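Handout, section 4.2: multi-component inputs.
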Amino acid sequence: MRINIDYLKQFLNIEDAKIISKHLSRAQKRDVWKELFASVGLETTEIIDFKGKDIFEIEITPNRPDWLSHYGVARDLHSKLPELDFHTPNITDRKFEKNKDNFTINIENKDDCGRYIACIIRNIEVKESTEGIKELLESFGLRPINNFVDVSNLIVTTIGHPIHMFDLDKLKGNEINIRRAQKGEGIGLLDGKEIELNEDFLVIADRSNPVALAGIMGGEYSGVTQETRNILIESAYFNPAVIRKAAKKIGIKSEASFRFERGADILIPPPAINMALDMIEKSESHSLDISYYDDRFPADFVPKKIQLDKIYPSAYSGIQISENIAFKILIDLGFGLDDRGDHWEVEVPSFRVDIYGKQDMVEEIIRVYGYDRLTSEIPKTTSSIVKMDVKRELNQEIRNHLTSIGFFEVMNYIFISPEEHSFFSRDRDFLEIRNPLGKDFSILRKSLFPGLLKNILLNFNHSIPGVGLFEYGNQFGIANQEIQEKEILAIGASGQYQKENWKNKQGQEFDFFIFKSLIFSLFSKLKISLILKDKHKQFFDRDCSFSVFIKGQEVGHMGILKKEILDWYKLEKPVMLAEFFVSGIIKNIETKSFQMWNKYPSYDRDLSFLMNKNLKYSQLEAAICELKPDSLENHTLFDRYQGKGIPEDKISLSMTFSYSNNQKILINEEINEMHTNFINKLIKKFDLIQR
Amino acid sequence: MINELKKEIEKAKTCFLEDLNIIQSSKELIQIKDNYLSRKKGIVTEFMKQIKNLSAEDKPLAGKLINEFKVEVEKQLNLIHDRLSYGKKNEIDYSLPAFDIPVGSPHLLSIVRTALENIFLEMGYEITHGPEVETEYNNFTALNMQEGHPARNEQDTFFIKGYSDIILRTHTSPVQIRYMENHQPPIKIISPGKAFRKDEPDATHTPVFSQIEGLLVDKGIHFSHLKGTLELFIKSFFGQNVSLRFRPGYFPFTEPSAEVDISCYLCNGSNPECRICKGTGWLEILGSGMVHPRVLENCNIDPEKYSGFAFGMGIERIAMLKYGISDIRMFYDNDLRFLKQFG
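Output:
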């Protein structure tokens, strides 16, 4: 909405305000106006110089349609500048002879159209407006058309009400019908668009056809042209919801619809039409031949009343505002106040469609009194219980650990492309966005890996030799017909892990064992033991694909990314990936309690043996856990060798077994017996060959 | 034979321990080292020579025992060498550079979010969460944006296919609705999280962004409580010298509403070319207001008995202001050159 400061002065001469000193430069004045506008809630987005005049582009919040005019803005500014005189527009109050033309207005439903005024003027001359009017319109960013259309535009910008003009001779029959359109009807609009209509549209129709879309735009056929001699002016009130729905449906945002859908002033149609007549009379320079005027007002309009306790403005704002000040402010803003002792009965003016209750009254009062006069107080509210956010604590701990071992936290969009989705999930139970930014952003991720892979690639492309990343975020899906959202911790790594240096000339690339060790270090920090089990996942390398279990419960997976997917992302080095359900981790965080450590010494026994190559270490380890004597405290693999001196189908392993008992000192014979028994079982189970 | 060798090794071990005690200088150290480890006539070498006389089956064990002894001798002598040379001048250039140990960083949004949360936790607020996929009711209707409300920005909203009323939340306010529906006042919560709007990415927009919102509902809460709370928060985060400005604003879910600006923490309005405030002296930082009575009613809280305030801010915006970042997309590029600068 554009405000021409010069034009505003006819209502409120803000140049005379106390806040303006005569010595201010133009730029300084602009700052003062901008501050003034902001103080009532009008945000200036741009200040335009139009032929030496200041034009303010102002953003109007959707709750205040009454601000969509110079008059409306002046009214609010006046409340801030009470020392100035506020001038209401000078409008002739005409008496009309009714219905010389035997014309009728038919309103089908008063809920759609609460008020409709039609006025017919005959023998008019359509021509160019005066230079003054043309320049004024241009300063508002509007294109002058002719003296009639220009009047409509001037009325809107001056007092905010959209009126419409028809070429009377294009209307069939002596009637105007405000009705819902019927299926099959259509209209060609002033902007050239052809619209197919149905019952959702409210139209203005002559005897046979729609001639305008009510409150949105007129029809091209019935519009005012150079040839127009007789004219019908409309000034009406339409239901905001009806206009909004229709305008949205056809995607038109006109000066008229913008105002009607926010809520017009139901009492303004008569002054609006009178103002139009004043302007037309001026441009025609002779008295007007008005042959018809009727004001149909079927709506049951009752001004809204609000009971406002006199102490409420102070109580709700937290600052002392005297009754007199509150009273004066509301009166200046156009409210009616009736003193009822301890409270006022406030009558809300018809142009304030945003007012709901007493809280709005407080906003009006402090807005004018000054938001800058609010004090600062700390509420004494205390919570009944201090609730710890367990998930936050855990996430923090994980974040601390992962960052301290070299991982960077990333954040990605939650939507991915269908192709990426297909790599990581074959299920049909995913969520899709109906109106995505593009197909590549249409699926709500079921895995966080696509994001990590893109991030890894981006960093490789920037010549970063290695990346370890992690992300917290939700995955989305459907389970049992319900939408499911689960928080995931995803970790990925590729490329160089440790740079070479003067002492260690090799450096170290991320491989699965480094990755696995880093992840195990995280869980060891959380005092949680993980078990990995081979499980084929479509996105991991066949030989390196694991499910992760905590206490028998599957909480995630890890592995090496499959070659085909690696290629698709144009990645070259192997990528190690892991995902965990955060809820699965939280569930297994245990409250710690002190335990006395084992005071007795532990004794090591080494064992070197040959094992069949086709056996996996995990199988051996599972057997160790199953067969071990109670006093076996620990076992470590310290050497693994295959090659020269070892049969081709074998592999040599060396392990240390540590024995200890927290009840007593173990004696040598006891340990030897235990150890021998135990390793014999192992040897037997796997056909091991002791070395 | 092997048993004899075993005994000899045991004996040598005992002798070695005694010898260790007499070493007082590097001269003695070299002498003892020679006695045991000299290739030609050292004790270990003497043992090795005996192996060839042993039977084939005893050979591996003998080798193992001798080797264990040798390792032990080397280890002990090295310890003594270190002890003797400790503090003495040596040949090592200690100015050689340190090794690069890999270190990562939390995401800047996590850092800022945590810092903001910490301030409110100190003030006794509880952190609450809600789903990112929400109902239109919780996201709009309950927040006093009925269907058709001009502020109900449907063209900016992502809708979920196959559902008529399920969307990606456009702010974290629905978390407050969920909380109020299940709790009576006093309520004192913050709800941090992601929000989504259908914006093409540019320097100031990303379709995914983060918010933190706060809500306090109790008896007798008024507008100055909101200002006091926000002032405390802003000063804690940006510094004591930063001041606060309330401007009238409009949000469907608050009445009265206020836009909050802070004075530019960098130039305080003194630099017309300031890169942070662009010379205006003020930075728009958050939106706030008193909870609209309709919103309370929608959650079965009696607005005649209780009142409350709410506020919300974009975490990216706060981070951009605090760290002088000019393009919001950087938060979601995940470029290490960006990530490694913080945390």
